[in-house]
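job 3f2a | input accepted
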Amino acid sequence: MATTDPAQETPPQGLERLRSTLRLLYHGQSPKALRFQSIILVVDLAIIAFFIATPLLRDSESFLWIDYSIAAVLAVDLGARALAASHPTRWIRQLPVIIDIFILITLLAPTWLFNLGFLRILRLWTLSRSSLVWRPLEKRGLADYRDTIQAVINLLVFIFVVTGFVYTAFANRESGIAGYVDALYFTVTTMTTTGFGDIVLPGTFGKLVSIVVMIIGISLFVRLAQLIFRPVKIKFPCPQCGLQRHEPDAVHCKACGHLLNIPDEGEG
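job 3f2a | predicted structure (268 res):
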């Protein structure tokens, strides 16, 4: 009877132990895991703050040092998350992961890819899809505001992406954009369709950019307003049709008419 080498059947114990530890840290609920996740969240927020301030700091002597330090932190985080993933090949095909890899590339080549540096703010969008953010918020009863918070984040990301693009593509030209604040001012006035006219992007391309900013900006504003002013609903899946949100005092599901048993706020 043929025998098989146990080493060929089981992966290295050290690697499996590391993956198990990382999985518990990134997805666990223990006090140690929650502390780790809080540290990761604080680091992510600090990185995003650096990305926002990058146009103002790029002439600083410490800029490259900070840039490469953040690249190292992001690379370690991506590697750890890859090890913690149950299916690494499926994990790496996710859009937030692809965006993070692109951001890492721009950090590793800040001189060559500086014109694409404004896309680093997309890290805020990927962070808003992370369970590291929503798990503690859900424990504080803020899960019902998830859509509203994500709409705010989508709007902020769009503002800073457009601001970075306008600053990179049109600064120091006849547009009147002399600095990053001018680009931010143009973005906000264009999105709100205020259009004072003191800053105008030159040429046909500039007009097309302004049109796109207005259309998408207004859409994001309308979406945010709908979420803020719509009637308050609670999340309670209907056993019959699966409808997720209902009025707090609903007795029947408005989609299928099934009798609901929504617990009061004081109940478990």
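job 3f2a | The mean pLDDT is 80.
job 3f2a | closed
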